[in-house]
Amino acid sequence: MDTTSVQRHDERASPSGRGLATRVAGAAGTGAALTYLSLGLVDSAYRYDTRTCANAPGFCMTVWPDVSLLASFAIALVGLIVAYRLLGIQPRLAVIPPTLLLAPFPLDAVESVAGLWPATVAGAAWAAALALTVWRPYRILGLSAAAALLLASLTVLYG
Known about the structure:
The chain is mostly helical. Helix content is 76%, strand content 0%. It contains 7 helices and no strands. α2 runs antiparallel to α3, α2 packs antiparallel against α6 and α5 runs antiparallel to α6. The longest helix is centred in the N-terminal third of the chain and has 35 residues. The N and C termini lie far apart (52 Å).
């Protein structure tokens, strides 16, 4: 029995060596760029809101902080779909939702403690860890790294 017959029909062979390194590095770079862009967009919206409402006598709120959060998620979704398609990371449906929905926890924790650049590095680590979960031999490593990041961030945020 050869190895292709043992492999499940819905699971692709895992890349090794340079292919794996390129894909994980590409996912990390995408995560870092999207993190920097999203945090910058949200931060500038909150600064605009603070400047606008500085001299308001009563309750003051603009729509830009809410719009910036929605725009950040939309930009990140499109960016991840395009980047993972170009990198050949599949199935994207198993990687992109946890990357988007759980990423605010580690990013918020790192940004609240250390600032923007360490949060960008955390975004890269988060995206790389979840990209590793696509391939069976690296699934435990990716899930362990993502779980450690998530547990540490929840400890910082709520501990």
